[in-house]
Each structure stands twice: as C-alpha cells, then as structure tokens.
Design a protein that fits this description.
Rossmann fold, alpha/beta, DNA-binding, homodimer, 338 residues
Chain lengths: 338, 338
DNA sequence: TTGTACGCGTTATCAT
DNA sequence: ATGATAACGCGTACAA
C-alpha cells in the first residue's frame, strides 16, 4: 500500500510525461520559453492546455524562495483617499506578474508592525507602506529585510527605501495662503483623527498664518475619526466659541462638506459669510452647491507610481530618484470666491 | 562543496535542535500544544522565541495542501458600499487564523472568472464572491472546488454554497412605496452603471408603481459609473424632459446627493418641490441639508457574517441556514417629508 | 508522547 | 538544449 498524498491536481511531471520531456524542461519552458527548443515548447504548450495545468504557487515559493506578492499596508479601507490609492495600485499591477496582498492597520502603529512581520514572513517581492511614521522596530524590519519598500502618501527625509507622495505641510500652507489672498482673515482649522499627516497639515496652516502676520489661530480638533457629520459639529462648536470666524480650512473634504451643510442649516452664506476649503478634492467637491474649494492630491498616480518604483527595484534596476514628489494643486471654487 | 539552497532563515529543525527534540514535535507543539509534554513545550517555546522562528507558509501549504487564506472578490475598491463590506470582513477576520486576500473585478464577469481561477489555484480555505451573477463557468469552478464559498451583497435562488445579503428588488420597492405614501406621484428612477443589482432595483421601482396603479414610469439611466456629478446631470436631463416630476428614487446615495445639489442650484425646494430618496444610507445622508432619505443596508454586518459563515463551514460544522437575509430599513428624512 | 521516513511540487546545481 | 539529482521546510502516516 503506497501512501500517496497527492492533491489530485495536474503537476509538472504530468505535463512532462505528456510532452515526452522531463519536468525541469517544462519548468524552464514556462518561465523562459527561449531556453527550450521549438519542438519541445510546442508539445509542452499543448500538454499544458490539454491537462489544464496550473502551477502550485506554494511549491514555487518553497523551491525558489521567492513570491510574486506585493504587499500593501494601509490604515483604512473605507477612507476614500486610501481607496483611490488602492485603485491606482490595482490599475498599475494589472499586466505585471505581481499579485497584491492587502493589510489594514486601522491607524495603529502596532498593527502595522504585526502586518509587516506577517508579510515579510511570506517573502514578498515588494512592500508598500503608508506614511512616514513607522515604529523604529518596523523601520528596522523593513530595512534589513532585503525586500524593496515604498512609502506612499507623503514625502519626508530619511526614506526607508523608496518613497512617493507630497508634502502635507506645504499643501496645507498653500491652501491657507489661498484663503488669505481671497481676503479672509479669521481663518480656523477644523481637524479630526489627528494622525501625523493631519498634524503636519496643521503646521502648514500655522506657517501660512505666521507669514501673513495673522497671529490668532482658531483650532478645533477632535481625535475621533473624520466624518461629514463631525464636520458639522466642529463648525458648530467653533461658531459657539468664535462667531466672528470668516473661513475654515478643513483637514479633509468630508469635514468641509459637513461644514457646508451646517452653514446652510444656520443660513450662513458661503462664501460671503464663511469661506470653506477642504483637502484632497474628492469628486463631490466640484458638484456641491456652492462648489467647494479643495487641494487636489494625485492619489491614483501615487498608487501607480508606487507599483512602478517597486517593479523596477524588484527587477534590479533601481529608479534614479528614490523619492518622487507628486505635488498638489489648490483648486479654487465658489466656496472661497469672495 | 555542499550545495545548500537554504534561505538563511530559522527553520523547524533549528528550533528542534535548540529544544532537544525532533522537528515533528516542534511542528505539533506549534499547531496543538496539548499533544506535547509540558517540559518539551516549554523548551520549544523558549527556542522559538530565542531564535525568532517564523513558519514558512509556502512549506506549510505544500506539505498540508491547505492554506489559511480567505479570498474576497469584489467589483470595486473605491465604491463606499464595498469598502464598508470589506471593513466588516477585516473586523471579523481579526482573531481568526485566516488571512484575507483581495481581488478586484472592476465590474467585469471575465475578470471575476480569472480571479476565481487564480484564487482557487492557491487552495484557499474559503472564498467570498460578490453578487449572484457569476458566469456559468465561474459557478462550476466554485461548485466543484470543494472550497466553501459565500456569495455576498444579495440574496437569490440557487446559491452556489453559502449566501448573505438582502433583496435589492424588495428594498427598492419599499423605498418607492415610501415616496408614494409621502404623497409623491410622478416618481422618477435615476440610475448609473446599470449592473445587475441596479437592474433589480429598477424592477422593485416598477413593482411599487404597478401596485399603486401609477403607470407612467420616468426612468433616467446611464451605463457610466456612478458619481455625485452624474447625479446632478441625470436630474438635469430628467427635468429637461419631464419638468413635472415630483420625486426621484436614486439608484444610490451619490446620485441622490448630486440631485440635491442640482436642485439647490436650480432653486427647487426639497422636499416640497422635489422629493429625493437614495440607496444605501451612507454617512453623509443624515448630515445633508435637508437630510436625505435613504435605504439603510447592513454592510458591515454583511462582511462579518460572510466571514462567520465561512469559518464555520471551513471547520466542518456547516451553518444551519445556507442563506442569510440581512434585510434593509427605509430611513425617512427631511428630503421626503412633504 | 515522541520519532522515523517520506512525500508535497517545484527549482537550483551540475553534468552531458 | 536537456536531464538527473537533490534540496526547499513542513506535515502525514505509521511505528514505537
């Protein structure tokens, strides 16, 4: 009694037998057809098709000590910003031999570290991580892994490896400068989930006010996750404390939309009574009445660029630039047209 | 000269040597600590910690012919509806031994089939697919795979295996009945990306009008992907053709929001001049001014239930019910309060 | 409770 | 250009 543990699936040897060659020849034919004679190749291709051969990725990974997995670790799957980046990643990964594996940190550094460990243990071809605020342990893991890594969403000094994003501080500063140019003076900052990127946008807000010698800053924030409803609450709280505010720079577009709805509820005219500026330029900002000013960020391109940088690094020709700054565009609309 | 292809990583045998036992004992200890003596277990745990042992998943998969991967195949990562479901999946999968692998069909049946093949070739523990409109080939692949499968988003006859969702037709019907009860009579249907689920919502719209003996139906649709801006355009087109319309049932919330903005632009009062009802009840519907009526669907719970059904099926105790109907709730708000 | 022997399906190495 | 052989790291089957 033989003890067979075979999976019942067609294997390389089955194909080899059918094609009248050895298993290794089939393996080579599948990986690089130029290393096999025309005749053998033709027979192998037929056999593969006839038998419906599908490679066993686990065996490939075990034997070669490599995978074609690109891991992406992002803080949230429901945040529109990250889902756009993800879409860009999927778009770019199509047509490459790579497969995406997704991890969700829910905005916690510890979960990020756990995910990095898990992913690295699978010997991924490359890794995408979000932001520049990894724990020291995570940075160390990534640096010593030998796996190409891209940090996305943000640029900054001291990249782990590759990097694509933009400066949130400069972007926020430009937005607030726009408000100042539009004639607003008592400009508030509305922010939720004060994560590191939001903190740096707050710095940009202060930069702009400082440059303009406006020294009162009106800052309303909450650690709670951002939402449209929260945007309304934040504006309400702000007005209770400082009814004389004349514009709000919102941490993101959901908050800006919520602020608009709240202003409408209170019959505050936008932009004459209150200017509103968001951040990210989601699709609905243009559609709103009045249309809402925002800072356009290049999210799809960010995802696509991340994949391209990784692909090049994996294939051995490291990109010239390790850091790609995709910039941003302040997009003025009716909500700040005084 | 030995030809070693070792990866340089710590293996089971390394741990075994350090603990003074054989590799298989370590293997057992890690999978089911109750099958190993206390003393051995303690030494093994120390060795694992000391050496920083991380299991090689490829080797595990190859030897056992199993993985702990749950594959999820969804049509879009940027659609809020699916990202909520995804969030529910991630929430539920935490604390289980399973890992999620995500596929993105971009709403094409062929890409779905390709992804199902790819996923199945990795011998996943279970699979989540979206909707009930798989190609016959995909259905066959899934049915014969022996892998537990959950269809999510929608209920219907003839499940492939497990199923969790709700009836889009009944939900749409209930929404339109609400509009009729509110006193609206010339009710239009605004729809984008007329995918099968949207088509079934259209049927529900017709059901309600038929029951109420309202026989004119005002249907404005486009195959283009849904967006807030598109919602505005659809309402504009509708008004050009039928200025006497008194309410719109929107295929989804983005379209409803776009319709609201367009109505504001045209100084059409909502709800008195135009009633608006959306579908899915995204967060911003409650925040809008006026707040927008919608149909609440249980997206997080849908994702969570899918994982629970799968987990039970994987572990051998099939759930009592193969089909879970999560239902829906019409949520009336200011936009239909005549 | 523990161990021995071997197979899982593929690729690396070396030889022809 | 092709093949023989061994190795990748782990789990299964069976024995002790």
């Amino acid at each position: 009694m033989k003890k067979s543990r075979r999976s019942g699936k067609v294997t390389l040897s089955d194909v080899a037998a059918a094609a009248g060659v050895s298993a290794i020849t089939v393996s080579r034919a599948l990986r690089d057809s130029s290393t096999v004679s025309e005749g053998a190749l033709a027979r192998i291709e037929r056999a593969v098709a006839d038998l419906g051969y599908v490679p066993n990725v686990a065996a490939q990974a075990l034997a070669s000590n490599r995978t074609n997995i690109i891991g992406a670790i992002i803080p949230s799957v429901t945040n529109n910003v990250f889902s756009d980046v993800l879409k860009g990643i999927y778009n770019a990964i199509e047509g490459t031999p790579y497969q995406l594996q997704l991890g969700n940190t829910r905005y916690t550094v510890l979960e990020e570290e756990r995910l990095v460990r898990t992913f690295l243990s699978q010997r991924p071809a490359g890794l995408i991580v979000s932001g520049i605020d990894q724990s020291p342990a995570t940075r160390e893991l990534l640096k010593t892994s030998g796996v190409p890594v891209v940090q996305i969403m943000e640029t900054g000094p001291d990249p782990i490896d590759l990097m694509v994003g933009f400066s949130h501080r400069l972007a926020a500063r430009a937005a607030v400068e726009h408000l100042i140019e539009a004639g607003y003076r008592r400009i508030a900052f509305l922010g939720a989930r004060m994560d590191p990127r939001t903190q740096r946008r707050l710095l940009g807000y202060r930069d702009a006010l400082g440059d303009a010698k406006i020294d009162e800053d009106l800052i309303m924030t909450t650690p709670r996750p951002s939402s449209v409803i929260l945007g309304g609450h934040l504006l309400g709280d702000l007005l209770a404390r400082r009814p004389d505010v004349d514009a709000v720079f919102c941490n993101n577009d959901d908050i800006a939309l919520g602020a608009l709805f709240e202003a409408q509820r209170r019959n505050i005219a936008v932009p004459s009574g209150l200017g509103i500026c968001g951040f990210n330029d989601l699709e609905y900002m243009e559609a709103a009445t009045p249309s809402l000013t925002s800072v356009r960020t290049h999210r799809l391109q960010m995802g696509a660029t991340a994949v391209e940088l990784l692909a090049r690094a994996i294939e051995g020709n490291r990109p010239e630039a390790d850091v790609v700054d995709l910039g941003f565009d302040v997009t003025p609309r009716e909500s700040t047209r005084r």
